[in-house]
């Protein structure tokens, strides 16, 4: 049967040794490429602003109404580390603070408080910029800009249409629903009406594919870019690239499409992991996105393409804030029953099933449910997280939840082939499985 193999994971601030079931074959461990963080992010930003890609800001910003579209607190971008330097740089080119407005690109997420806004921007002591939470459900706060070629109605925050210059501030990271984050994602879905968000999200719902991580130009990406550019306003991106510790290691600035593609190319170098073939088992951790269950699930999604149909994803999720703001019901079908139904229905009827069991679901819930159920249809998911309520797995139905690593591995050994092939993703949220097979 072969010798037992042990792997070490950094989990909950300590080293966790896992003794894999005897007979399992470790194909490889796939951490991200280490990148040093910038010692002074503000300086790094100024250098990138001085060498933009594809577009330059006007030499004189005096009198221009400037909107800074900034991602919200659910995102990993360490905005506070460089945002004051961005404002100072704009001022050095003639911009007045009275002409600068910050729009938090909330999409369908909750509003931010004054304290959260100040902390995010790094201005606790002197926060004198106008700022606003985006409200995706306020019809009067949006302008109608027509429809994309893919059928998405484009209703965007009115302040964007009234601006002389829009600067999108965020980060580029692997994204299971879009391919990669960043770029014009700050505008759609970030600053769009709920109807626009819903239609754009559904570009990623197909029977053939539900996971687009690593895709440079997914339908959802191309659709949102077409929609955002209907504004007809100069748009400039300031995108941070993050290392495995969520520190800024580089900036990419410039044209919202051309510069974004360059950022994606660089992220691929550190995050893409090629496997020789599909594996029976993927062992993942949520690091470095350890805030809550929503973020932790990204680690599962990033490894999913490497796992064969019917295989296992064994996940160690920190979820420091537990479930977070993820809406889950009081009960669900048992995992085994749910998987049996989904496999009987097949991939083409999963969305129909979502709409039957989640009548009236909101935009994000409907889309995320479809994505989650497509993964559940393909793979079994086993989760250990001491920070989640013990009934989370039962209430959601999409994964089996365990109270210890030992009990989880014991069940994995029962479910997997005796000579299972295994891939380990020790920081799965910072990598993704690039699998052409």
Q: Would you write up a description of this structure?
A:
By secondary structure, this protein is α/β, with parallel strands linked by helices. It has two domains: 6-30 and 275-434, 2-enoyl-CoA Hydratase, Chain A, domain 1 (Alpha-Beta Complex), CATH 3.90.226; 41-269, 3-Layer(aba) Sandwich (Rossmann fold). Helix content is 29%, strand content 24%. It has 13 helices and 20 strands. The protein has helices at residues 41-49, 83-92, 114-121, 158-161, 194-201, 219-229, 258-271, 293-303, 335-345, 350-357, 363-378, 392-396, 405-415; strands at 6-11, 14-19, 25-29, 66-71, 100-105, 130-133, 142-147, 153-157, 165-171, 174-175, 179-180, 235-242, 248-254, 272-274, 279-285, 307-316, 380-384, 400-402, 421-425, 432-434. The strands form six sheets. A six-stranded parallel beta sheet has the order 3-19-15-16-17-18, with helices on both faces. The longest helix is centred in the C-terminal third of the chain and has 16 residues, at 363-378. It is globular, with a radius of gyration of 22 Å.
- What's the architecture of the largest domain in CATH terms? 3-Layer(aba) Sandwich
> Ranges with pLDDT <50 over ≥5 residues?
none
Mean pLDDT: 91
Structurally, the number of domains stands at: 2
Give the total of beta strands: 20
